[in-house]
Amino acid sequence: MKTLEYLAEVCVRKGDYAVAVQHYLALNDANYEETAEDKQRAAETLLAVAVCYLAMGNEKKAEAYRKEAVEKLTRAGGGLTEKFAKRHQQYDLLANKGKLPYAGAERQARMEERRRLQKAKDLFTEMLAQRGEQAQSLDKEAVRNAISLGDLQMRTGNRDQAFFWYQAAEQAAEGMEYAQACRRLGEWYLTAGEYLKGLQKLTNAKNYIEEYDSVKTKDYCELLAEIGDCYFAMGEKEKAVGMYLPYIRLFRELQLPRGKQYQRRLERTGRLLADSGRHKDAAECFSELALATRMMEGETENFARLLLKTAASHIAQGNQKEANTLLDRALLLGTAKGRETEAYGKLCDRIGRMYAANGSLERAEDCLSIAYEMTRNGKKCLTRDGLAALLSVLRKLGREERYFAVKQGKKLE
Hints:
By secondary structure, the protein is mainly α. The protein is 78% helix and 0% strand.
């Protein structure tokens, strides 16, 4: 119980109030209130929960827990305890839109946090010793505490200490706590660049969940992605795709929030699919990413870039109409900064070459001609590939005068 209280207080000092609430409630559940002293501790715990909810801005829940705490303390008898009084002062301060007394005293808070973390570690180590060398004898609460301590250490940058707790949890865990501990160790190895070890731990977690638990969860979905990350870092691109695709499908099925990490993996998957010739699947990835980007950012340069990636996948499939629609849109977006800019000229070179590859010769001629003329006027817009594409397009269209003008570096009429 002391370990839970130290964990909760460390979370409060870190500002992780939601996690602190979980620890305080677990502490309260473990208190059977057999004596008046136990009832006083329960009141103190409930008031701590109230303080956390108030710090998170949930005044309704905060007041409900505060009232319950006051009533419990009254029934316990014995008067006001020092800890209860201190926590009520914190509550009153927050209720008056103030800050907790230690907020702003960053150095002191860090020192206190380190002290409490060390105390929690000592208590847990003592628990291990008391229960003997058989780590498997530890209960679920102890394992969850170890994982929580590891998480706290990771957030504060203490990687060695985090490894200690994760390894202790893995050795002691059973059931889903084992899968969770394996995943944490896998993530630790992944961020350390030890990809093979990370892959082994993450795979252990995946296999356990597949055999004993549901695979239709956010945790399992993220696990697939992390295994894909391992394979990608190891250069095993096909195996990475083999993890990313089910990850993406499950992500969509669960309708999870499409954050930056999901978008990075989605684009990576699209690139890997395109490189392996799976252009239809690649187009789906790039298209989804483009739509998400437009919703989050608007029609930005990043959105236009993704339109071009999607268009390239359609060109590779021979979908001329779909590709042209996307290329037209990207070209229009490129005019936002002005048709006379070097950036627009370079875009015309790129899109012109894509039009040419798509068999849209007139569109290609128009774009590449703009890049050509801007290059003649001193702006480096037309690439060697663009020049070759322009000459090829002009020859195919039978534009002999324009063809020879380009060959001689003259102005196009």
